[in-house]
Structure formats: C-alpha cells, structure tokens
C-alpha cells in the first residue's frame, strides 16, 4: 500500500464542489441572457500550464465559458511565473492591460495566482499598486478557487490567500485541456534540491509524488480518450517515488505506462542529472513508446560554477550519463538548459560551457542570462561581471549552438522518421507540422494527413530550426 503525504482530503474537495455549485447559481442570476466568460493565461513552465488547465476546469464547472481573449471577459486570471525577472515584468505589463479593460467593464474580476504571487513581497506590492485586482492566491490553494470566487461574488470583498506550506497534492480536479492530442500529467510537485539560483523550492514547496495508481489511471483514460502524446511532468521526474512507500520509482512508472495498450508516445520533463540513472536509460531503450529524447539540464560546463549552483554533479559525471545514453540509444537527442553569467563565472568558466556543448552536440538549448531571485542563495553572491559582457557571452553561445543545431538537423536528411502531427495545418500551402520521436520539428505536405495522425516521413531538407519531409 502506497502512502501519500499532504493529500487534500475528499471532504475538503466536497466543500469546494459545494462552493462551485453555489457560484453556478449566483452566476446564473447575474448573467440572465448570456454565459459569463473567463480568460486564464499561464506563464512559464509546463507545470504552470497544467495548473492553468485545472483552473479552467474549475471555472468551467462554475458555469464560465472559456475565452482566449481577456478583452470582454468577466473574469481574467493570470497564473504567474517567478523563474526570471523578465517573466515577472511581463505579468506587470499585462496586468496594466487588464486594468485598462476593467475601466470599460467595471464588473470584471481580476485574479492572480502562481509562483510570482507566492513571494510575499510581490503579493504585497500587487495588492498595494493594483486595487483593481480582486483575487490573489498562492500555489498551495489552487483547489480553493470555488470558495474564493464564491466569497468575491457574494460578499464583494477582495481576497488574498497565500499560505506558507510544504505543499499539497490534489487529486480529481476538473481539467480543461489545451490540446486534444497532447496531455500533460504531473507526477510530482515541488522540489527538494535548492539549486542556489532557483526560486521553485521556495514557492512550490517540498517534493511530493503522486500516487502511482492515480497517475496510471489518468494516463490510461487519456489514451483511451484518444490522446497521442503523454508528457509526464515534475521538477525532477527522476526522483519520483522517493517519498512514497511501496518501492516505485520513475523507471517503474515509465515501464508500466509503456505497457498501456494504444498507439501513443511518452515524454517526460525535467530530469536532474544527479538522479538520471543507468536504469532510466535502460528503460528508455527497452520501452518502444518512450520518446528517444532526454532533456538533461547541465546549466554550466564548469565544475566550480556547478558547485556554486549546488547542482550536486560534476561534468565528468554528467558526461558519463550522456555517454551511456548514446551507447544504449544511438539515435537519442539531447537538449539542455544553460545559465550564462552566474555569479563568480569568468570567461574561462564560460569557455568550458562552450566546449561542453560542442562535445555533447545538443539538438537545441534553452539559454538564459542569470537572473537573481530574491530569497535564493545566489541572489546575495558577488556578481562582478557587467551585464553587457554577459550579453556578449550569450550571443557567442547562441551562435555556437545554432551551428550545432544545423549540423544535427542535417544528419536527419535522407532518413525516415515517425512523426506525430501535433502543430498547425496551413491550408494556404497544405503544409502540416509535427515532431519526431526525438522532438525535432518537421514540416511536410499534408496530402490528407491530419493533426493527431502518426505518419512515416522521409526527411528531405533541414535548416537550423526544423526539418522538412515528405510522407512515405
Ligand atoms: S532541480 Fe534545481 S533548478 Fe530544478 S526546480 Fe529544483 S531547485 Fe529549481
């Protein structure tokens, strides 16, 4: 029997379902001749997008229609991200736009939630500077949205609820999914790693794994419902199960999901290199439904900087995983995250990052300049390198990676690839977009293929950004 910590009780969820019904009644009386509509926008990572789908699910249960525009919405919620300063700046900019819309629609409700408002100083600033915001709620109380909306509608009062918590697990919330083809399934929440630059453990709480059967049953019902790609999500999927009784780990979960009947793919993100094991690579190699793509964020090529980042691996250990993955899965594609200009990083440290990416040959990289986050250890580290210098390093890194991406893409020309068409279909030129198992973008003439189809495609051309193919 598996034991789960921090599970929100069925009784508490029942209370919220009752609030949801009461909201539905109030909204019916408020909007006699039309359905109220809401707009929900999630910033940042796929975990946030997944939370946004639950927020939409709860609002739909209350009777809101879902709009893809904030203009004209009766309720708008920004589900925010705190990972970098510019993510926060964008929220502030767009919040100004919501306040502007509210001037012509004074009954409009505005809510903010997510990682950015979980930081007390930010929530206080928003409450003070933006009196037009009706609702501010933290990352640990998303499931209480029906109660918040009920209190706002019935008592016309402003709500700010940001409890400090190690985090909860909520099962069974309604979901409105962004796609009918690809579905994200969180397997764990929070993080215990405290990388020195990262705000996530401070705003999302400690690592907690969902119960194996809850995940398995959710994936099974998604596959039975026609979904073609399942993305398993966690801040560090590789440590899934460490907090559960019953001996399940991530490789076991992957192999059991692989055994579910149906024509579908499995992806996962994110893998912390310190927990990426040979068992994980062996499981990827032996399970046909697991995509041969590994996102393995290295962050930096210098052991000195990795130590300051508190990443708990060195480059030699990292390269051993890469070597093993390439040996067991020769066609595997690797992607990574790089932080440029971490406090204490010199140009010689940065050169080690360049050498690393040249030797690993990632198919693509997410590259960022270090962004200090209040409350993290790195925020108070001495950081003497000028920002113009960091921008130059980033430019050099991007140029180097562009050449590598082009080279990796070129190696696909002439090869057959199984593609899932999951992107846009352009009727003007009959082109459809999909992704290979290795997560590369492929454009090709549809010739009858539809979004949601798998097809074998021969790659005929490549560029730095994508592949071009034709149906076989
Ligand atoms: S592993 Fe590190 S970078 Fe990733 S969420 Fe946890 S603390 Fe942040």
Give a short summary of the structure:
This protein has about 475 residues and is α/β, with parallel strands linked by helices.
Describe it.
The protein is α/β, with parallel strands linked by helices. The chain folds into four domains: 10-161, Rossmann fold, CATH 3.40.50.12160; 179-291, Transcription Regulator spoIIAA; 298-411, 2-Layer Sandwich (Transcription Regulator spoIIAA); 416-471, Nucleic acid-binding proteins (OB fold (Dihydrolipoamide Acetyltransferase, E2P)), CATH 2.40.50.140. Helix content is 38%, strand content 21%. It has 14 helices and 19 strands. The protein has helices spanning 10-30, 46-62, 85-104, 115-118, 120-129, 145-155, 200-204, 212-224, 250-258, 278-286, 303-308, 315-328, 347-360, 387-410; strands spanning 37-42, 65-66, 75-80, 109-114, 135-137, 159-161, 182-186, 188-189, 208-209, 229-233, 265-269, 293-295, 333-340, 364-369, 416-426, 431-436, 441-445, 454-462, 467-471. The strands form five sheets. A six-stranded parallel beta sheet has the order 2-1-3-4-5-6, sandwiched between helices. A five-stranded mixed β-barrel has the order 15-16-17-19-18. β10, α9 (250-258) and β11 form a beta-alpha-beta unit. The radius of gyration is 23 Å and the shape is globular. The chain binds iron/sulfur cluster. Iron/sulfur cluster binds at residues 191, 193-195, 198, 200-201, 235-236, 272. Iron/sulfur cluster binds next to α7.
């Amino acid at each position: 029997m598996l034991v789960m910590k921090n599970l929100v009780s069925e009784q508490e969820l029942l209370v919220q379902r009752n609030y949801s019904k009461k909201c539905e009644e109030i909204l019916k009386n408020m909007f006699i001749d039309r359905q109220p509509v809401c707009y929900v926008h999630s910033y940042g990572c796929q975990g946030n997008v997944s939370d946004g789908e639950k927020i939409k699910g709860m609002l739909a249960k209350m009777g809101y229609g879902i709009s893809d525009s904030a203009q004209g919405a009766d309720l708008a919620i920004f589900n925010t991200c705190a990972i970098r300063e510019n993510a926060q700046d964008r929220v502030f900019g767009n919040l100004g736009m919501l306040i502007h819309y509210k001037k012509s629609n004074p009954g409009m409700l505005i809510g903010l939630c997510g990682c950015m408002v979980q930081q007390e100083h930010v929530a206080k600033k928003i409450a003070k500077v933006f009196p037009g915001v009706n609702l501010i709620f933290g990352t640990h109380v998303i499931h209480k949205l029906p109660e918040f909306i009920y209190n706002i509608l019935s008592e016309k009062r402003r709500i700010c609820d940001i409890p400090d918590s190690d985090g909860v697990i909520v099962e069974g919330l309604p979901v409105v999914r962004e796609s009918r083809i690809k579905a994200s399934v969180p397997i764990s929440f929070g993080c215990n790693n405290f990388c020195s630059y990262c705000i996530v453990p401070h705003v999302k709480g400690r690592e907690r794994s969902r119960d194996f059967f809850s995940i398995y049953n959710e994936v099974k019902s998604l596959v039975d419902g026609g979904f073609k790609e399942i993305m398993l999500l966690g801040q560090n999927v590789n440590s899934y199960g460490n907090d559960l009784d019953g001996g399940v780990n991530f490789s076991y979960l992957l192999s059991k999901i692989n055994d579910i009947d149906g024509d579908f793919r499995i992806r996962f993100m994110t893998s912390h290199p310190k927990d990426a094991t040979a068992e994980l690579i062996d499981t990827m190699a032996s399970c046909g439904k697991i995509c041969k793509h590994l996102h393995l964020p290295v962050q930096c090529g210098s052991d000195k900087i990795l130590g300051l980042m508190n990443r708990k691996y060195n480059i030699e250990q990292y390269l051993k995983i890469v070597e093993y993955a390439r040996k067991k899965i020769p066609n595997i594609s690797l992607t990574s995250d790089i932080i440029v200009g971490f406090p204490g990083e010199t140009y010689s440290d940065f050169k080690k990052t360049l050498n690393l990416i040249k030797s690993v040959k990632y198919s693509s990289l997410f590259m960022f300049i270090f962004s200090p986050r209040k409350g993290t250890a790195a925020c108070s580290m001495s950081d003497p390198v000028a920002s113009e210098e960091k921008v130059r390093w980033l430019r050099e890194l991007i140029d180097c990676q562009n050449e590598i991406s082009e080279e990796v893409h070129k190696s696909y020309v002439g090869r057959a690839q199984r593609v899932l068409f999951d992107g846009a279909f352009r009727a003007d030129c009959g082109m459809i977009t999909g992704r290979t198992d290795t997560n590369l973008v492929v454009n090709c003439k549809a010739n009858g293929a539809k979004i949601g189809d798998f097809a074998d495609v021969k790659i005929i051309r490549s560029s730095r950004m994508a592949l071009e193919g034709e149906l076989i």
